[in-house]
Design a protein that fits this description.
Number of strands: 20
Largest sheet: 6 strands, mixed
Order of helices and strands: EHEEHEEHEEEHEEHEEEHEHHHEEEEEE
Strand content: 25-35%
Distance between the termini: 41 Å
Length: 361
């Protein structure tokens, strides 16, 4: 643990009883005394506070920043209005996904957040196209039905924000970058905070009714129930946005005009389809089916797919998973079999997400 990076909130996590583990080169809390199951349910019912300071935050100020991002992503950057945020994908020449990210038009600059495990790749990759400043700030996520009330106690202006809005505003003293977004399927916010104020902001939020600290364990089960991809599991350089079911993230102009890495592959898949597809999966019984488990159309049959994420879904009350299957087997309701510890367990293709998303639109 001594070689791991630490966030500005690391000592506070220990004070709160957080169990610290290595994650993407960082020391992060996997759970708090409440435990993963109750942390998950608490977030769905009240509000969960997550430390996501391990993710890299970038400021793009170059005069060519919009054109540069469009050369790297099959995403419409040019028509994103000031004060709005969007999900993005960095693609490779063969159509594979180099990373997924969030970016916001802050007026005369673009705010970008990339995954911790891909930061060492993404930063020079984006710097090859435009100027990049790496921001040294904390990043927290406040998620759940009581998130708005809790954050409004620090600045009531957040009540006017809608899903994917982005604003700069003070919460205690210094300016914070607040976006109405998150990774749980719940309404909530992601908040970039000056490092010197991180502990004070988090402590102020934890004083609000219904807010509790939440670790990486519940973050994973919450995002899986919401049908959201984890880079390195559900999408990576071997999967394209079309295979990954992310066509919605590529706006019509970009799909049709191209001009991004892998455009020929992605446009061909859009026209002709793919041989495999990401799907939701619901195993029968109570046992989770984990990543790497093979999928079969019949017991003892050939492999037709693989589970990429799987856990027990506390809100669903049973195991949930995602994975890739042959397109002929991807229809919701299709019964497959997972090869689990020497046995074949029935597993049904399910419609994503597993829980209703509650974003404030």
């Amino acid at each position: 643990m001594t070689d791991l990076k630490t966030t500005p909130l690391a000592q506070l996590h220990r004070t709160l009883g957080g169990k610290m583990v290595p994650f993407a080169g960082w020391e992060m809390p996997v759970q708090f005394p409440m435990g993963v199951m109750q942390e998950h349910l608490h977030t769905r019912a009240h509000a969960g506070l997550f430390d996501v300071s391990h993710m890299a935050q970038l400021r793009l100020e170059g005069a060519n920043r919009v054109e540069a991002l469009e050369r790297l992503m099959p995403v419409n950057v040019a028509e994103l209005k000031p004060g709005r945020q969007r999900y993005g994908l960095l693609t490779a020449a063969d159509g594979g996904i180099l990373d997924d990210l969030m970016f916001a038009n802050m007026g005369d600059w673009i705010y970008v957040v990339v995954n911790a495990a891909r930061a060492d790749h993404d930063i020079p990759h984006i710097q090859s196209a435009t100027s990049v400043e790496v921001l040294d700030r904390a990043l927290i996520a406040l998620q759940g039905p009581k998130a708005e009330d809790a954050l409004a106690a620090l600045n009531d202006a957040v009540r006017d924000m809608r899903f994917m809005d982005a604003r700069v505003m003070p919460l205690i003293d210094g300016d914070c970058i607040v976006t109405r977004s998150g990774y749980t399927g719940e309404d909530g916010f992601e908040i970039s905070v000056p490092k010197a104020e991180a502990v004070a902001v988090v402590e102020a939020l934890l004083e609000q009714e219904g807010v509790a600290p939440i670790g990486l364990g519940a973050r994973d089960s919450l995002r899986l129930e919401a049908g959201l991809c984890l880079y390195g599991n559900d999408i990576d350089e071997t999967t394209t946005p079309v295979e990954g079911g992310l066509i919605w993230a590529m706006q019509k102009r970009r799909r049709e005009q191209g001009g991004f890495p892998g455009a020929d592959v992605i446009q061909r898949q859009l026209a002709e389809g793919t041989t495999r597809q990401r799907v939701g999966l619901q195993p029968e019984g109570r046992a989770p089916v984990r990543a790497g488990t093979t999928l079969h159309a019949v017991e003892n049959g050939p492999v037709i797919g693989t589970v990429t994420s799987g856990t027990f879904g506390p809100s669903v009350g049973g195991p949930v998973a995602m994975g890739y299957v042959e397109t002929s087997q991807a229809q919701p309701g299709t019964m497959l079999y997972a090869h689990l510890r020497g046995k074949y367990v029935a597993i049904r293709v399910a419609t994503l997400p597993f829980v209703q998303q509650t974003y404030k639109r």
